[in-house]
Amino acid sequence: MCEINIEKYKYNFIDKPAPLDKVGRIHKEAYKIASENRKFEISNYWKRANYYWLFQASVYAGFFYSITIEKYKSLYVNPKIIILGMTCLGFTTALAWYLTNRGSKQWQNNWENHINELENEITGPLYKTASYKETWSVSKINELVSLFSVIAWVFFGLSTISFFDNLLIFITYLLVIGIITTTFCFYGKGLKNKGKEVQWFNIGEQ
Predict the structure, then answer these.
(1) pTM reported for the whole predicted model
(2) How far apart are CA 198 and CA 112, in angstroms?
(3) How confident is the model at residue 119 (pLDDT cuts 50, 70, 90)?
(4) DSSP track, 27-56
(5) What is the distance between the alpha carbons of residues 77 and 67, in angstroms, rounded to a whole number?
(6) Which helix (H) or strand (E) holds 154?
(7) Within 67-166, where are the H helices?
(8) Could you give the 3-state DSSP secondary structure of residue 196?
(9) Rounded to whole angstroms, how far apart are CA atoms 11 and 123?
(10) d(CA 81, CA 86)
(11) In sequence order, which residues have a C-beta less than 8 Å from that of residue 108 and are 6 or more positions away?
């Protein structure tokens, strides 16, 4: 992966010197693709958010149901084990939700950065012009909710462990949480250079 500045970025779509009208057509087509991909990422962002909302709601419902229902006492499996397992499941899906939110938002920002650099000669500074100086970000709020859900499941797990009064279970729980987090952080990242050249640029640098 190599870094390019804004000047190189604007001519990065062209293999060799070309007339200005051809350059304009290429940039216009690139702008169109970036706009379509931005819409696609926004649509997918909220589809994924709805998916994780439903999944989290199901796990929350199962968790609170399992700690109040009495029939679990007749099971061969310790009901506390079931509850602890559900906290691990809730933590896993909440962490996946949080990281998915961050990844989706980064891809949306990626296409918005392309639009910001290409729009001046096509539509004017449309995306760079806003009627509000500052407002609330729905995507950031959604990201915060998913982060709070991750923290909540950790506390639920710790509160469940307190009923066992067993140091081994406590260590095992922390180990499982650590393995889940490490696995997501290590294997969940993308945009690696796998046989193709990936370039990136910093907005505002010349």
Answers:
(1) 0.79
(2) 18
(3) confident
(4) HHHHHHHHHHHHHHHHHHHHHHHHHHHHHH
(5) 14
(6) helix 138-161
(7) 79-118, 138-161
(8) coil
(9) 19
(10) 9
(11) 38, 41, 42, 45, 139
